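dude i think i finally got it to work??
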Amino acid sequence: MTDRALSVIRAGALTTVQDLGRYGHAHLGVPRSGALDLPALRLVNRLVGNPEGAAALETTLSGCAVRPRCAVTVAVAGAPCPVTVDGRPAAWGAPVRVPAGAVLDVGAAVSGVRGYVAFGGGITVEPVLGSRSTDLLSGLGPGPLRDGAVLPLGRTVGRAAPVDGAPTQAPPAELVLRVRLGPRDDWFTAEALRTLVTRAYRVSPASNRIGLRTEGPPLERAVHTELPSEGLVTGAVQVPPDGRPLVFLADHPTTGGYPVVAVVAERDLPAAAQAAPGTPVRFVPAGR
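look at this
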């Protein structure tokens, strides 16, 4: 067995392998998937000298712990958290050299939701449709990490970034999502459209990689007939029967039968990935 690998000591609440995603397969019913916080993924890969699309780990709230079988450079970013190597404090947001056999422990998020852990050479599980990403909806890619799992690592191709610490975006105290109305905004009352862009919502604990669910005032529909399934894009704000807006994220279905009242600007979606349950949410018209 190759020594270019790591063993999972503590899988955490939900840790998955993610890269930039599998684009171009929506017509086959395959979501993009990939890291929810793409800037954080690109950052940790740059820090360890990987191409920006190399596969890394995405943790959720509680972090994870792994033991590399070889000496490897590691970087952790995304949601701020404590990092240790064999129990000794290590840097967050900077390259860290982890000796062979040492335990890298990525602790629980201090703020935010999702952490990203890159290893020099990247995680080289078998790609599916051009991506190594775990897709929780379709089941493509490797399954979520389990204690005792072994993941292969690639050969290092670049040098770690010579920095003491990289600038990172803090998780949002308030999530502001810029939206463009449509394509089905005409299925809602004028009052519902005012509610969407003037009232406050909160991130629901039921949120996941498929979508960010909200708690707050329901949106009243003006049209109550059934809607045939239509194509969905990442960032679509769908309104299910309870009337609360649902923002689709990377593992979203490619079609859906509830009306989409608006679409969130792509540049706001990384912040949505880091918005913890209870975070205030405001939808504002794009251009403000």
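The mean pLDDT is 95.
im so relieved honestly
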